[in-house]
Amino acid sequence: MSLPPGFLDELRTRLSLTQVVGRKVMWDQRKSNQAKGDMWAPCPFHQEKTASFHVDDQKGFYYCFGCHAKGDAISFVKETENVSFIEAVEILAGEAGMKMPARDPKAQEKADRRTLLIEVMEMAVNHFRLMLKTGAGAEARDYLTRRGLDEAALDRWEIGFAPDAWQGLWDHLKAKNVEDDLILGAGLAKPSQKGGKPYDTFRGRIMFPIRDARGRAIAFGGRAMDPNDNAKYLNSPETELFDKGRNLYNHGPAREAAGKGQPLIVAEGYMDVIALSEAGFNATVAPLGTAITEDQLRLLWRIAPEPIIALDGDTAGLRAAMRVIDNALPLLEAGQSLRFSIMPEGKDPDDLLKESGASAMQTLIDGAIPMVDLLWRRETEGKVFDSPERKAALDKDLRTAIARIQDPSIKNHYGQAIKDKRWELFRNRPSGQGGNKRPWQPGGRRGWQATPPVLASTKGSMLASADERAQDALREAVILAILIRRPDMLDQVESRMERLDMVGPDHDLLLRCVLTSAHFGAEALEEALLNRVGGDVLDRLFSLSHVRITPAIRTSNDDEIVLACLTEELTKLEAKRGVAREIRDAEADMDALPDEGVTWRLGQAAEARNKALRSQTEDKTTYEVADNGSLMDREERDALDALLAQIDPSKGKSH
């Protein structure tokens, strides 16, 4: 939408920046001079106790001397309300009594439809709240009472109930003359596949309204009352209003509380947010049924520079914390990171509050650890590093993680912190070979052994060809197809899958969907795949001949066959890639590995490759030799040609 010349200038002159900002901050009366429009307050964009946020009302600009946030009234509304530029202008124009210029008809139509959808969502909120107070909601009320929520808390959080009826909400909205298209568009109902009336999305569930940063109802989260329901929690589907990867539960109230100095806490679910908020931790949010996405991380950093991730102390909670690290590393900036507060084993924040009170929770929040400490814990906990091979594996994993950091300064600090921790771990190890008694120091090298260089000819001869990439892609396809067909098997290989770099087309996106959604069941995974990847990609994956003939796909109900096939394919893929990884590692930082030389690395990689090839010769009658000298199944060859054409169109046949 284009604005006429002078519109924004007039808007800024009509507004008092002090009044706009004053809704979000508490002015420091000692430093501020209201008569001159010279105002100071703690910054609403980062946590602080001193008043370093300055507003110059005469110039119409603000600036924070702590986090360096700066801008005018429009940028302030845009950042604090999490809205677009035009939406910020609309909000301010309404306050200033200015009429917005006429919109493009299509844009106006879209805005009008969003307004109608939000109205329908509010009608649904009121309906569910009413249903909770009826006889049909008695069991749900009892459950909420056992969870410690009184009637006042239920009203504050607008909790409701969807009875176990196919068209309960549908009939209610139709009685109010709501159009079918709006009910379906809001994600409140789904069309029948049998030609009947659409049916309610939520049935037999306790309902939690999800509101955006401006307080508008955009979706619901529903907790199943039936303990045997496959989906314990169910969110609204993606709609024009709702993108679950770009929103946070309790976003608006948490942002306001964080602006007043409370630490921003990220919990795992709705009940954790409610329990923490009711206990006084008002700046608490939760992702919406998925692992924390990059977009949600950016939303969190708009609220506070160091959100505290407070996840459950069970295996799933720890896995979620580890995935957050991988998403956050590339996005780190100076003063912008995460801290982690892991609950006691087997407990969530709600359990801790009930058993030990708010003071125990405060102690955990105060003791939240930096992200680099949790990264180190992930790579070292429960492991023994009593050999050069194990130390090399640790170095490789840590270097891979640190390489994802984009900011050079932060990358250097992480590298130094890891070197310090490594020195602490290995400083009491036995002395080195050749009688050298000097302990290794961070950043140093042994005087008796220089790291041999990797010869250019050696590097060139070991590089993977496009044919090899295509064969890797075939194995990836089989692994992904198995996990999509049997998502319950992810627990067996999850840590290995998280470290797997994909080369096949669309395989990285498929992997991310599996890692983030498989634990919620087959139905949730299917929905995530269809929404994020699309049916065409899935059709191509399962149409590959090498996938179709895989025993784990043909007999997907046999746990033993499925697990054996999955682990075998994954092991072969990992082993085959050993050479290229070892060479990259050796090139990356020869001085960082005082215990191992490049010659040893390449020998290990070669042995890994030999093991992979030997494992493929168990039935020599069904294999033939490809042009590049590797063994290849005849069925695999046909599928390889199709993938090879996508990876490198200049290649013809692989044979």
TrEMBL record:
Reaction(s) catalysed (UniProt annotation): ssDNA + n NTP = ssDNA/pppN(pN)n-1 hybrid + (n-1) diphosphate
Alphabetically ordered keywords of this record: DNA replication, DNA-binding, DNA-directed RNA polymerase, Magnesium, Metal-binding, Nucleotidyltransferase, Primosome, Transcription, Transferase, Zinc, Zinc-finger
Any GO BP: DNA replication, synthesis of primer
UniProt keyword ATP-binding, yes or no: no
CDD domains assigned: TOPRIM_DnaG_primases (cd03364)
Cofactor note: Binds 1 zinc ion per monomer.
Segments forming CHC2-type zinc fingers: 43-67
Claim: DNA-binding is one of the keywords in the record: yes
EC number: 2.7.7.101
Region of interest called Disordered, as start-end residue ranges on this chain: 427-447
Cofactor annotation: Zn(2+)
Domain called Toprim: residue spans: 262-344
Annotated GO CC locations: cytoplasm; DNA-directed RNA polymerase complex; primosome complex
Gene Ontology molecular functions: DNA binding; DNA-directed RNA polymerase activity; zinc ion binding
InterPro entries given in the database record: DNA_primase_core_N_sf, DNA_primase_DnaG, DNA_primase_Znf_CHC2, DnaG_bac, DNAG_N, DnaG_primase, TOPRIM_DnaG_bac, TOPRIM_dom
SMART domains: TOPRIM, ZnF_CHCC
Biological function: RNA polymerase that catalyzes the synthesis of short RNA molecules used as primers for DNA polymerase during DNA replication.
Quaternary structure and interacting proteins, as annotated: Monomer. Interacts with DnaB.
Domain remark text: Contains an N-terminal zinc-binding domain, a central core domain that contains the primase activity, and a C-terminal DnaB-binding domain.
Protein family according to the UniProt entry: Belongs to the DnaG primase family.
Protein name: DNA primase
Protein source organism: Aliiroseovarius pelagivivens
GN (gene name): dnaG
